[in-house]
DUF429 domain-containing protein (Alicyclobacillus fastidiosus), 241 residues
Amino acid sequence: MSLVGGVDCGTERTVSTIAWLDTETKAFQLDAYIPSVVTPLPTYPSKDVSCVGFDCPQGLPIIGQKTRLADRQANTPTRSLPQTRHDLLNNHVLYRGLIQLGVSVFWNVFENEQAVIYGLNAIDAPPSYNKPLIFETYPRFALDTLFGLKSSIKYIPSKRKTPIEYIDLVWHRIQRLGYTCSSIIRPTVDQVDSMLCAIAAEDVVRGSCVKVGREPFIDTEDRIIREGFIAVPGRRQERWI
């Protein structure tokens, strides 16, 4: 059994949803946790977890830039980011909770050597490390690369206004790729997004993911990772069910 995971992130005070994926059986197992400084990573269901994708920004832009290259290329909602940790804590910042979570998770994992960070230690498919590989992903961009669903033509239903339509659209297509989840009939928005993150992790391990952005680097003075890649799944052949 080979496991990968995907995390649809909340904040440091709210629940983040996890989808564990057995890449051999294509079966999902759902879970949840609240990330913290002490536990930035979820508890693994087994020792076989090789890769985990997080839907949150791993760091901030290069000083002097308002956005990271990855955010511009993936068209993320966090298009305007603060320059430093001080700015993040003290200035008005959209999606502050999500950004704080991402910065905290990736920095604490780096500082405590709890995992290998995609691009910082390994750019392509992960070599044989004794620790899992973690990376940043973005479900809405994954819908484009995986299924060809373009948000620019408003083909993707709103998660907030029409969540059932969004769930049914995404979950049906995930099932058409051969994935299953025996514990649910209809997943939640957070659960289908975490599944997309896990599918991205599967492609990262296989070396078949699509990545945008530039290599991350460490800002030791501000204790933060800057720039970085966003990795999403490549296009798959769907099955009609």
